[in-house]
Amino acid sequence: MKAGVGARTPQQKVTGVAERLESYLRRYDTAHDHRAPFTYIYLRLTRSLAAGLGTGEPAFDDPDWVANLSVALSGAYFAAMDGIDDWVETRQPDGQLHPDDLPASIPQPWRDVYAASSVPRSYVLEDVLFSMMAHMSYDLPLTLRGMGDRQDIESRIADFHRMNDVLASCIDEVQNGLAARYWHVLADLDRLLTRQDELLSNYGVRVARGMAWFNFDRLSNPQARAAAELSIKKSTAGLIEEIRAPNDPRLRLGLQVARWLVPSRRKWPNPASDV
């Protein structure tokens, strides 16, 4: 269906999301805010989706639905970030935080992520992984649920997987850009995080988005909804705990020593630099 006069095309809608993400990224880079690396990843992936909608490759059955999902999903992210910004502006926190320090109006996974970034020697890769988990395991299934009734959304599964193809296919290139922009020691961080960075890979993106669809299905089932809601609220904290304090005492001690030995080596780009 052709867009009416004055209506935005699917590509224009997603480009609008990218433009807003870029404005947040510039602000975070200027402030040396740990939210910048994930926002950079999100921006690059969104631009890839906009490009795919512009070229028609892949050929989505309903490009407008794809664009609307991108807009709605980004809205959840922007709302959480704005909530954090409002709290920071009034509290001006300094030092390590606990998730409960942040207001309940901010979704639990994002409180977990923001508190985790306040820990001394937090790493760029951690900032990205924790944020990806919150966005994909929590924001995405809830956004899908809000897009329409279950039958209508389930009819979009082919387009949803085409989106997976677009996003997953460019993740290696985006990860290289992340390393060049914020941190150069990917090999050190791979060892430190014991391959937990698989989420930031072609395979990881597909699996995470597939789990989001599964949890959307659970949220749509009255008998499974309560358990699903609890699960998606706890998933991000579970990943943080697995990386920061695994159950195996020897592994936990090894990671604590490695964290002490390996500096974060975080660098910040010029906010005016190209993205």
What tags apply to this protein structure?
275 residues; mainly alpha; 70% helix; globular
Can you describe this structure?
This protein has 275 residues and is mainly α. The protein has one domain. Helix content is 70%, strand content 0%. The chain is built from twelve helices and no strands. It has helices spanning 10-31, 36-55, 63-91, 108-117, 124-146, 150-154, 157-169, 171-182, 186-192, 202-219, 225-244, 249-261. Helix 1 (10-31) packs parallel to helix 3 (63-91) and helix 4 runs antiparallel to helix 5 (124-146). Residues 187-195 have low confidence and may be disordered.
Brief description of this entry?
With 275 residues, the chain is mainly alpha-helical.
List the domain count as a whole number.
1
The overall pLDDT, averaged over residues, is 87
Number of strands: 0
Q: Helix coverage percent of residues?
A: 55-70%
Continuous helix count: 12
Instruction: Name the helix and strand elements from N-terminus to C-terminus, one letter apiece.
Output: HHHHHHHHHHHH
Give the CA-CA distance, first to last residue.
33 Å
Low-confidence spans: pLDDT under 50, at least 5 residues? 187-195
